[in-house]
From TrEMBL:
<keyword id="KW-1133">Transmembrane helix</keyword>
<feature type="region of interest" description="Disordered">
    <location>
        <begin position="135"/>
        <end position="156"/>
    </location>
</feature>
<feature type="compositionally biased region" description="Basic and acidic residues">
    <location>
        <begin position="1"/>
        <end position="10"/>
    </location>
</feature>
<keyword id="KW-0472">Membrane</keyword>
<dbReference type="InterPro" id="IPR010652">
    <property type="entry name" value="DUF1232"/>
</dbReference>
<feature type="compositionally biased region" description="Polar residues">
    <location>
        <begin position="135"/>
        <end position="144"/>
    </location>
</feature>
<feature type="compositionally biased region" description="Polar residues">
    <location>
        <begin position="12"/>
        <end position="26"/>
    </location>
</feature>
<dbReference type="GO" id="GO:0012505">
    <property type="term" value="C:endomembrane system"/>
</dbReference>
<feature type="domain" description="DUF1232">
    <location>
        <begin position="71"/>
        <end position="105"/>
    </location>
</feature>
<keyword id="KW-0812">Transmembrane</keyword>
<feature type="region of interest" description="Disordered">
    <location>
        <begin position="1"/>
        <end position="31"/>
    </location>
</feature>
<dbReference type="Pfam" id="PF06803">
    <property type="entry name" value="DUF1232"/>
</dbReference>
<protein>
    <submittedName>
        <fullName>DUF1232 domain-containing protein</fullName>
    </submittedName>
</protein>
Length: 156
């Protein structure tokens, strides 16, 4: 099925409107910041520091005003997939439960790599380390004053 120029413009306009209203597709409809923090606090240790750090990297990248709306849509889609309890490989499956989540997050990181600044990486790494206790510092704020403030949660 070939799409003509008129249809292409309509799709683009619809997509832009959906992104501007914060509803770019089904996954972002399922994303919410409280759900992300809840998932991280309940399942961070099970998911592992690597998955958590990458999810935080995407979250902080999405908070940057310089990140384009389409990139935020990609980010929120992958975070929504991470938050959703039903996915390709159930999260409770031992060892491989978060493999699909990590794949979705890694794909999103590749797509929006230009929005992942050294400050974003440092803030995510520092927060993950603070939560997991590895190289944690007593000050859990990001080194860069331009980075998004770090959310305090307790990992169960």
């Amino acid at each position: 099925m070939e799409i003509d120029e008129h249809e292409r413009r309509q799709i683009k306009a619809s997509s832009e409107e959906q992104i501007m209203t914060g509803q770019p597709n089904d996954y972002p409809n399922d994303y919410s910041e409280p759900d992300l923090w809840q998932k991280l606090s309940q399942f961070a240790k099970q998911a592992g520091q690597n998955v958590v750090e990458k999810a935080l990297t995407l979250y902080y990248a999405a908070q940057r005003p310089e990140t384009p709306l389409w990139a935020k849509a990609v980010i929120y889609s992958s975070l929504a997939y991470f938050v959703l309890p039903a996915d390709a490989i159930p999260d409770f499956t031992p060892i491989v439960g978060y493999t699909d989540d990590l794949s979705a997050i890694a794909s999103a990181m590749t797509a929006v790599a230009f929005s992942i600044t050294p400050e974003v990486k440092a803030a995510a790494k520092q927060q993950a380390a603070a939560w997991f206790g590895a190289n944690a510092t007593s000050d859990s704020s990001p080194e860069s004053p331009n980075a998004h403030p770090i959310r305090e949660i307790s990992i169960e």
